[in-house]
């Protein structure tokens, strides 16, 4: 707990602080605390009202489902009964370009993704990408 909160909750600490303040300052502090308290009460009341509205809506939905003869289990089974179709893998793309890496190995590249470093160096040196086509 912070020192300020500890002081505010303890009457002896409040008296010690109030001893050094005049009445006008204490009244100003009291008004500000009352304002904060009122705001907090309104906030709590609004949260309670929203919860009551949520519960009312929930009861309305429950009654509607009951009228239609639908149970919660029916809703759950409907959700889980139709699984999503498995995502199909795309076939691997055929290689479009061929190049020799720094170790002298011949490698291929599909043209997707990051350009391999040996091809990028050649492109920077003025070669064309068509020079590497298979």
Automatic annotation (TrEMBL):
The lineage of its organism: Bacteria, Pseudomonadati, Pseudomonadota, Gammaproteobacteria, Pasteurellales. Residues 23-58 form a coiled coil. InterPro entries: H-NS-like_N, H-NS_C_dom, H-NS_C_dom_sf, Histone_HNS, Histone_HNS_N. Belongs to the histone-like protein H-NS family. The keyword Coiled coil applies. It is found in: Cytoplasm, Nucleoid. Residues 87-134 form the DNA-binding protein H-NS-like C-terminal domain. GO terms for cellular component: cytosol; nucleoid; protein-DNA complex. GO terms for molecular function: bent DNA binding; DNA-binding transcription repressor activity; minor groove of adenine-thymine-rich DNA binding; protein dimerization activity; structural constituent of chromatin; transcription cis-regulatory region binding. The keyword Transmembrane helix does not apply. Residues 72-116 are annotated as: Disordered. PANTHER family: DNA-BINDING PROTEIN STPA, PTHR38097. Keywords: Coiled coil, Cytoplasm, DNA-binding. This is DNA-binding protein. It comes from the Bacteria. Residues 100-113 have a biased composition (Polar residues).
């Amino acid at each position: 707990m912070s020192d300020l909160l500890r002081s505010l909750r303890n009457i002896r600490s409040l008296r010690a602080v109030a001893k050094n303040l005049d009445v006008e300052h204490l009244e100003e502090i009291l008004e500000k605390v009352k304002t904060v308290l009122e705001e907090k009460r309104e906030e709590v009341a609004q949260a309670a009202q929203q919860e009551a509205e949520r519960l009312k809506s929930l009861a309305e939905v429950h009654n509607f489902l009951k009228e239609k003869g639908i149970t919660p289990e029916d809703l759950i089974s409907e959700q889980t009964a139709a699984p999503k179709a498995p995502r199909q893998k795309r076939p691997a793309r055929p290689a479009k370009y061929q190049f020799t890496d720094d170790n002298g190995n011949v490698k291929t590249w599909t043209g997707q993704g990051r350009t391999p470093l040996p091809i990028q160096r050649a492109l920077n040196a003025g070669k064309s990408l068509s020079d590497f086509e298979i």
